Amino acid sequence: MQVTPTALPEVCIVEPKVFGDARGFFMESWNEARFNEALGQAVHFVQDNHSRSSRGVLRGLHYQLDPHPQGKLVRCTSGAVFDVAVDVRRSSPNFGRWAGVELTADNHRQLWIPPGFAHGFVVISETADFLYKTSGRYAPECEGAVRWDDPAIGIQWPLDGITPQLSAKDVAAPLLKDAKTFA
């Protein structure tokens, strides 16, 4: 596997080795020892999540605060998404900065989003299946969110004139300056 830092050094693109031939492909999508060695830290996942969404659905920007922060290893197994991480650690020199990468069923890329970063994605294909491995259990009392279109962050979502479909929770999310974040 190859691990490449994004514009936010802690957020990394993970590219597994893919072996393909006329029959299709094979890849090892998860190996804890190899992942931890490549990342240079110990990460243990406790929960897997799966979502299916249609074109224009935008989920995020979500995170979990202490004492139940979550790191996420995400990938798209069907279709394509534009995936985003935002640094929500007020003490970080990268606070409020974002990194985005296209994840598709064909490119097999994964994105590691450590605790302290908000996460979101928009579906850019007709539909997409999206898998999350999380390093912390879901704890609703620790939920945090930031508006997807906060001008202070300035994410360049590839919407191509489409109005994104949002949950009521995402519509009500605060701007970063007003959100509960990490110290």
TrEMBL record:
Pfam families per the UniProt record, alphabetical: dTDP_sugar_isom
UniProt keyword Isomerase present: yes
Sample GO molecular function, one term: dTDP-4-dehydrorhamnose 3,5-epimerase activity
InterPro entries, sorted: RmlC-like, RmlC-like_jellyroll, RmlC_Cupin_sf
Catalysed reaction, written as an equation: dTDP-4-dehydro-6-deoxy-alpha-D-glucose = dTDP-4-dehydro-beta-L-rhamnose
Keyword annotations: Isomerase
Top-level taxon of the source organism: Bacteria
Signal peptide: none
Documented EC number(s): 5.1.3.13
Pathway(s) annotated for this protein in UniProt: Carbohydrate biosynthesis; dTDP-L-rhamnose biosynthesis
Family statement drawn from the similarity comment of this UniProt entry: Belongs to the dTDP-4-dehydrorhamnose 3,5-epimerase family.
Assembly mode: Homodimer.
Role: Catalyzes the epimerization of the C3' and C5'positions of dTDP-6-deoxy-D-xylo-4-hexulose, forming dTDP-6-deoxy-L-lyxo-4-hexulose.
Protein name, UniProt field: dTDP-4-dehydrorhamnose 3,5-epimerase
